[in-house]
Design brief:
about 260 residues; Lysozyme
């Protein structure tokens, strides 16, 4: 993060103070000069061609001093704008860097005492889930919960597709076709045969899931401030037909403490 930080913004303040001091000195010089000019211009004091030449020279010098004052005003305003822009750029760049580098996946605290395949499944996904948040903004808890729910803790995934993502007409990668259960809004269930995306690895599945949720359709999911909102929004956006989908995800997250990698408010 240090590459974006300025250790002392006083360098901008010093520059502005310097231009202000020089401008003040020029203003004082111009005031003294104008007093002298007024004396020379007084016909009761000086008259004649020589006096006219002096007054003409005074007018030229006065114009030069005015130009110099304007230049210092321009420099001063520019330095203030640079200072403000640099501070804003520093803040924005640091914010972007924090999002890119984000947090790292700490060890799983395992509040529910998971063991065996379930514990292994969580540990195998936590790094990818945190990386998906750092790169795409998908909450790690949502990634973990959807992987658990859609694949039955990794036991019933469709190839390496642990999120049950259907292929669609725009998908050009590998696919697998199989039967899957769906649910009507009234709760009645039915079975269809569908084509699903498949991947070379589970890590590729996690990456593709995160990319999917950054599409315009799922923008409310990315904009969610916490896992409960994200779970509700992913259902509202049409990820699954299961009428209890959001509650199931929330229950998984809270039962197994999967929000421990989410950014804290």
């Amino acid at each position: 993060m240090e590459e974006f930080e300025v250790s002392d913004y006083g360098i901008f303040t010093d520059a502005v103070n310097t231009t202000n001091t020089l401008k003040s000195q020029i203003d004082d010089c111009q005031n003294r000069f104008n007093s002298a000019k007024n004396i020379v211009s007084d016909n009761n004091t000086f008259m004649g061609p020589v006096c006219d030449n002096v007054i003409e020279m005074f007018n030229k010098i006065d114009s030069l001093i005015t130009d110099m004052t304007d230049n210092y005003n321009t420099i001063n305003n520019y330095m203030i704008e640079v200072a403000d822009a640099y501070a804003k750029g520093d803040k924005d760049a640091t914010s972007v860097l924090l999002k890119l580098k984000g947090s790292v996946a700490s060890d799983y605290s395992n509040p529910a005492g998971l063991s065996g395949n379930r514990l292994n499944f969580v540990n195998s996904l936590k790094d990818g889930a945190v990386e998906a948040y750092n790169k795409y903004g998908v909450l790690p808890s949502l990634t973990m919960a959807q992987a658990i729910l859609e694949s039955g803790w990794g036991n019933s995934s469709i190839g390496n597709n642990i999120f049950g993502i259907k292929a669609g007409s725009g998908w050009t990668g590998k696919t697998k076709t199989c039967k899957t259960g769906e649910q009507n809004p009234d709760g009645s269930r039915y079975t269809i045969t569908a084509t699903f995306r498949d991947y070379d690895s589970v890590a590729e599945s996690v990456e593709d899931h995160a990319k999917l949720l950054t599409s315009s359709r799922y923008q409310p999911v990315i904009n969610s401030s916490n896992y409960k909102e994200a779970c509700v929004n992913v259902k509202k956006c049409g990820y699954a037909t299961d009428v209890n989908y959001a509650n199931s995800l929330i229950n998984i997250i809270e039962s197994y403490g999967l929000d421990q990698w989410d950014p804290k408010a």
